């Protein structure tokens, strides 16, 4: 009865969240039963219920695969570089935009930095090839003018991880600032006035007022980012991958594509996906507990 009375009291709020809740139930939770095929030798011709049960055979095959450590290394390094170099960038850009006093100039800058988000990875890759290709790339035409030798940006294994990270920063940093700007708008203006009264300059106000005011948002987004640590973006890696950099470019997503899509190993590729999900869930739980231990709100 209490539940029904609560629903009646906030009926319009429940109606507001209903479409989003329905979306997650249909497209996120219901399909989760499909992970059962990772424990089967699934065949689309006989279906899930009649496919033979093989237990942990696919997981044993995955962990015993000679390429497993290579895939794990590449995935973790690319994700780690994204966390270290990309994750702080939206915060930095949001702090700079928040300090702009001209509303018109601020809107123009926001529009410019948001624009790359709306470009597909196909377009981003095309721009990258036009800019960095060894034969006709703009950068390799400029370098000789500066007295430098042309550089193999696209076929150099040592540069591949940095190339992916730079692409991600350029494409997504502007879009990532939206949440932080919204959080900064909620910081109490009286705190800034009090800081000014105490003689704090701009940088002191940012350090002692703005950043503490959005700290819970930063922590929450960082925890959520850890949940995707095994996801490095299939499209980006697949489009930039070539035979010269395959040793550092091959990740779990490309591996699943080759085995699951091209070779039809649906159960095995599902097992790989389940392994990734378990790692992400474990990191989220651990990070959430650590955040709460140190006084943060965490996710729940």
From TrEMBL:
Protein topology in the membrane: Multi-pass membrane protein
Listed transmembrane segments: 12-30, 76-97, 118-139
Keyword Zinc: no
Stored CDD domains: TM_PBP2
SUPFAM superfamilies in the record: MetI-like
Subcellular location: Cell membrane; Membrane
Top-rank taxon: Bacteria
Domain (ABC transmembrane type-1) ranges: 72-287
UniProt KW keywords: Membrane, Transmembrane, Transmembrane helix, Transport
A single BP term in Gene Ontology: transmembrane transport
GO cellular component annotations of the record: plasma membrane
Primary location class: membrane
Keyword Membrane found: yes
PROSITE patterns in alphabetical order: ABC_TM1
UniProt family annotation: Belongs to the binding-protein-dependent transport system permease family.
Protein name: Sugar ABC transporter permease
Species in which this protein is naturally found: Paenibacillus thalictri
């Amino acid at each position: 009865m209490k539940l029904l009375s609560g629903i009646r009291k906030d009926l319009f709020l429940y109606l507001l969240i209903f479409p989003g809740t329905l979306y997650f139930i249909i497209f996120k939770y219901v399909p989760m039963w499909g992970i059962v095929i990772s424990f089967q030798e699934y065949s689309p011709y006989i279906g899930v219920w009649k496919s033979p049960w093989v237990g942990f055979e696919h997981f044993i095959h995955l962990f015993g695969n000679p390429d497993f450590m290579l895939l794990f290394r590449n995935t973790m390094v690319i994700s780690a570089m994204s966390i270290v170099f990309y994750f702080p960038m939206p915060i930095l850009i949001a702090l700079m935009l928040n300090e702009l006093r001209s509303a018109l100039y601020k809107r123009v800058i926001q529009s410019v930095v948001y624009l790359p988000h709306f470009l597909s990875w196909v377009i981003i890759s095309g721009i990258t090839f036009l800019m960095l290709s060894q034969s006709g790339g703009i950068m390799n035409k400029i370098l000789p003018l500066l007295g430098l030798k042309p550089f193999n940006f696209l076929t150099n294994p040592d540069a591949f991880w940095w190339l992916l990270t730079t692409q991600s920063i350029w494409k997504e940093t502007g879009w990532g600032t939206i949440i932080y700007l919204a959080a900064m708008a909620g910081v109490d203006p009286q705190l800034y006035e009090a800081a000014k009264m105490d003689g704090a300059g701009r940088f002191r106000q940012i350090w002692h007022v703005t950043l503490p005011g959005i700290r819970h948002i930063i922590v929450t987004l960082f925890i959520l980012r850890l949940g995707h640590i095994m996801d490095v973006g299939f499209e980006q890696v697949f489009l930039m991958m070539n035979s010269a950099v395959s040793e550092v470019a091959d990740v779990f997503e490309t591996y699943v594509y080759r085995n699951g899509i091209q070779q039809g190993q649906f159960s095995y590729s599902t097992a790989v996906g389940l392994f990734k999900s378990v790692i992400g869930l474990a990191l989220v739980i651990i990070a959430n507990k650590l955040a709460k231990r140190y006084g943060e709100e965490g996710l729940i």
